[in-house]
Amino acid sequence: MISITRRFLLAVTFACSSVLVAGASYADKVKVAAIYTLPVEQQWISRIHKALNTAASRGDIEYVYSENIANTDYERVMREYAEQGMQLIVGEVFGLERAARKVAKDYPDTAFLMGSSFTPVAPNFSVFDNWIHEPSYLSGMVAGAATKSNLIGMVGGYAIPEVNRLMHAFMDGAREVNPDVKFLVNFIDSWYDPPKAKESAFAMMDAGADVMYAERFGVSDAAVERGVKAIGNVIDTSGDYPGTIMASAIWHMEATIDKAVSRVADGSFEAADYGQYSFMAYGGGSLIMDESLMSAETAAAVKAREAELLDGLFRVNVNDARPTSDN
Known about the structure:
- This protein is of the alpha/beta class.
- The chain is 36% helix and 18% strand.
- It contains nine helices and eleven strands.
- The longest helix is centred in the middle third of the chain and has 17 residues, at 161-177.
- The chain is globular.
C-alpha cells in the first residue's frame, strides 16, 4: 500500500447543474485512487494498475493505490479515499457490491469506476469488466487446431460470468476448427492458488489433455513439466514459458481508464457501463500468437477471423453460464 503523505483538497464543485460529478480542468491532473483486494502482480489487477501507471506517466493523473485489501476493509478504504478528495476511485467490487454502492451514494461528487457483475447506478457509479471474449475465441482456434488427443483441459478460478464467458468463447473457437474436440473443466475456487491450479492441470493431463487453457497461474507450470502446450489469459506470460504458450487473449485497460479520466477531467462523468472499451475494436483486447508453435494454415485462419471481428463481420457469442466438462 502506498501511504498518503498529505490530504488532497476536495474537487472544485461545478456551478453548472447538468454536471453530475465534480471534475478537473484539462490543465489539472485528475486525482485517482485504486483499491485492490489482491497484489498488483495478480494478472487481472495488474492490467488496471498498468493502465493507471501509464496515465500517471503521461501526467494525466496523480495515482495512489492500496493492495491486498480484505473485503471487510474495502468500504472503509473507499471512504477514506473519498474523504481525501480523490476525484476518481477505481477497483473491483465482486463480492461486496452493496457496500461499495452505498459508499458511492454517500459521495455523489466522487466518480467511481468499479469492476462489477452488475449495472451502473446514477449519478456516479460506473462499472467495467474484461470483455476479452473476442481474443479468447481466437485463442481457442489455436488450441483446437493444436490438440492431437482432441481433449483440452481448462482450469479456472471461480465460475462467475466474467470467467465463464471467456471460457465459453475459447471453447467455441476450438470447436470452429475442430468439431471433435472435448473439454475437461475445473474451477479451483481461488483467484490465486498456483499449487492447486497446477494439481488440477496434472489431473487433466493424466486423463489425456494435451493442450491447457491457463486461466489461472500454475497451469502453465504444469504444462512445461509435462511438455504440453498452453493458452494464456489476460496477460502475456510467453516470456516465462517459451515454447509452451501458443497464444494468449490479452486485456488492455488503457482505453477504459483513459475514457473515464477524460470524463472526470471535463466534468462529464456519469454512471455508465464501460465494458465496451475492453472490446478489440477499442483496443481493449488483443491476441498474441507464437506462430512458430503452429502451422501457417492455423495462423492464417486466426488472422482472417480476427480481421472479420475488427470489421464487424463476425460476432463472438456471449455465454455467462458455468461451463462444464464433456461427458
